[in-house]
Design brief:
Blueprint: E1 4-11, H1 13-38, H2 46-63, H3 83-86, E2 101-106, E3 110-115, E4 118-123, H4 130-139, E5 148-152, E6 158-162, E7 183-186, H5 193-207, E8 213-219, H6 246-249, H7 271-283, E9 315-323, E10 326-336, E11 339-352, E12 361-374, E13 382-388, E14 398-407, E15 410-419, E16 463-471, E17 477-483, E18 503-510, E19 515-522, E20 526-536, H8 566-575, E21 577-579, E22 585-587
Parallel strand pairs: 3-7
Antiparallel strand pairs: 1-2, 2-8, 3-4, 5-6, 5-7, 9-10, 9-20, 10-11, 11-12, 12-13, 13-14, 14-15, 15-16, 16-17, 17-18, 18-19, 19-20, 21-22
């Protein structure tokens, strides 16, 4: 049997128990979802066909697990075993734990697809991509109302991508190569808790399946091995394999370099290193996408206007932009996927700081926030509400309501802005029907800053703004067309700005996952330049190095001192109190007398 170490695996008792429990819950949740769709579904309808497809998912789950105790189910840790580095002797080797299983499989020749019509096996062919698979399933009318799909690689990496006509990216991240042995899960279209959990857990369970066909495994016996790091061979459990484990894993020519001259390698648990390697592999896939650019003011948006898009949870961005006479420095964070917070300094080049520093540009600080009201779906756009310059001097204070809808490579936004975003005042404030004081907007500026002008929020005449963002065929580049609601007729600090056109043109070039460059032509007469640095704090991790284990000489002394033996401990425990006939232990100071409970005994 020809084994392919690209399809190798490591399995531990813990992951086997976890995945067995996940499979049990998956089967129950899928049965629940199928029962909901079966209610009132006419025979032969699309709902009835979807119920049959879910039942096929259940049968596939049952085939993927063995009947019996959970520990008998073989599941692997995501990642790929490297026999030249993970199984050789030395500090970099995998720590062998009781019940650990390693192995390798033959390379498969097909791809498994779970969609609305059931479970399918498609023969793999060179050049196969995720885009091609989605087109095939759409032609077979097997996607249903699904908006996303997850591709599970043979190494156990899960890549989730949008696939619906309204959110699908036809370039960049969507065109992923599909390797033999991969699995594709078309998500269930519902938004209830059960369906969302299945959409996340099913790809993770598939990632724990063995990566190929005709797999051969070896169960390691840590108890029969010398203490680490003195091990010079790793033998199989008696009768479990024909050749010693050192044969396929040890290098052909082991190093004879003295131990003190060998470079120390960081200690690891093997499976953790494999999982981290898989995460790094996914992080190397860099591409631009609509709905990710930082605006001139900071925060996800176009140039001068915001959108209803949000950065991933944990994202932290630093943005600089210059549009004469303003230079903006902002820090934005996404503590939740539905919330955005920002802090910004604005330097006004044409206004001095004051008599204390007449040669210094005026500097204004402000706070921003944005909240998602609901997410985008097949027919409904994403909707968000936001506040700019909240709690600062209020020079650029504004409020807005904005909706965004994606159509393939186009992301369209349309919003209504008050304050600085709506100085053009297209029409009277519709909110005045609820509260007449919102008809006009009072002066919202503050000399000292830090005041919250809550009474003036969403007041005055609003203006319409919007724009389009386009993902170009060149993956790092996105283009923008924007329509402003600000006509620059009422700039703060009596700054005079001419606007030749309310339309702005811009572009974002994504250098890598952390750096983006921005450029544009705004107001019809002014250039804009900027850059953004970003990272995701939710995905940061610190590598741990336990160092090289030190040799410890065996001790010939007893494990206990004369007063620490188990017998001595038992005698002291008995001497500390008495145990009654009912089995209750009473401390010496709390022994009850004549059935009366002592106040100190509780």
């Amino acid at each position: 049997m020809a084994l392919d170490w690209r399809y190798s695996f490591v399995s531990t008792p813990l992951i086997r128990r976890q995945m067995a429990a996940t499979a049990n819950r998956l089967s129950a949740e899928i049965e629940l979802i199928a029962a909901r769709y079966a209610v009132g579904a006419p025979e032969g309808s699309s709902r009835a066909a979807y119920v049959e497809g879910l039942h096929a998912w259940q049968r596939y789950l049952d085939q993927g697990r063995q009947q019996g105790e959970p520990r008998s189910v073989l599941a692997r840790l995501p990642g790929q075993l490297n026999p030249l580095t993970d199984m050789r002797d030395g500090p970099g080797a995998i720590r062998i734990a009781p019940g650990m299983v390693i192995g390798a499989c033959q390379a498969p020749r097909d791809v498994v697809i779970l969609d609305a019509s059931g479970v399918h096996q498609r023969q793999w062919s060179p050049g196969l991509t995720l885009d091609a698979l989605i087109d095939e399933r759409r032609a077979a009318d097997s996607l249903g109302q699904a908006a996303r799909a997850s591709l599970v690689t043979p190494q156990g990496q899960v890549l989730t991508r949008p696939i619906a006509s309204w959110n699908r990216l036809t370039r960049g991240a969507a065109d992923l190569p599909v390797a033999p042995g991969a699995s594709l899960v078309i998500h269930t279209p519902g938004i209830d808790t059960a369906q969302q959990w299945v959409n996340e857990a099913l790809p993770q369970w598939l990632a724990s399946r063995l990566p190929g066909e005709n797999c051969h495994s070896w169960q390691l016996d840590a108890a029969s091995l010398p203490p680490y790091p003195h091990s010079r061979s790793r033998a199989c459990r008696a009768g479990a394999c024909e050749t010693p484990m050192s044969s396929p894993f040890r290098p052909a020519h082991p190093s004879t370099r003295p131990r003190d001259e060998q470079r120390p390698a960081p200690a690891r648990t093997g499976w953790l290193a494999l999982g981290m390697a898989g995460g790094l592999l996914g992080a190397q896939i860099a591409h631009a996408a609509t709905g990710e650019s930082q605006s001139d003011f900071g925060g996800v948006g176009l140039m001068q206007t915001p959108t209803a898009r949000f950065a991933p949870q944990g994202e932290l961005s630093f943005t600089y932009s210059r549009t004469q006479p303003y230079k903006r420095f902002s820090v934005n964070a996404a503590p939740f996927e539905w919330m955005e917070l920002g802090f910004r300094y604005v330097s006004v080049e044409t206004v001095s700081y004051g008599e204390a520093a007449p040669d210094r540009d005026y500097l204004d600080k402000s706070f921003d926030t944005k909240f998602r009201l609901w997410e985008e779906d097949r027919y409904r756009p994403a909707l968000a509400v936001g506040l700019r310059d909240l709690g600062g001097t209020g020079l650029f204070s504004s409020e807005y309501l904005v909706a965004s809808k994606r159509y393939g490579d186009l992301d369209v936004s349309l919003g209504l802005g008050w304050g600085y975003l709506g100085t053009r005042g297209d029409f009277s404030n519709p909110l005045a029907l609820v509260r007449s004081s919102l008809e006009t907007r009072s002066d919202t500026t503050s000399d000292n800053g830090g005041d919250f002008q809550l009474g003036s929020m969403f007041s005055g005449s609003p203006a319409v703004f919007g724009g389009i963002e386009y993902q170009t065929p060149w993956d790092p580049l996105t283009l923008m067309l924007e329509y402003e609601g600000n006509d620059y007729s009422d700039e703060p600090l009596t700054v005079e700005i001419d606007q030749d056109s309310p339309f702005n043109l811009g572009a974002t070039f994504k250098v890598n996952d952390n750096l983006s460059l921005h450029g544009g032509w705004e107001r019809g007469n002014t250039a804009m330049l900027g850059l953004s640095l970003s990272t995701n704090l939710a995905g940061l991790a610190q590598a741990k190095d336990d160092g090289t284990p030190e040799d410890v000489a065996p001790s010939h002394h007893s494990r206990y001192r004369h007063d620490q033996t188990p017998e001595a401990f038992r005698v002291r425990s008995l001497d500390a109190g008495w145990r009654t006939s009912t089995g209750r232990h009473w401390p010496r100071r709390c022994v009850p007398r004549r059935g009366l409970k002592s106040p100190a005994c509780g």
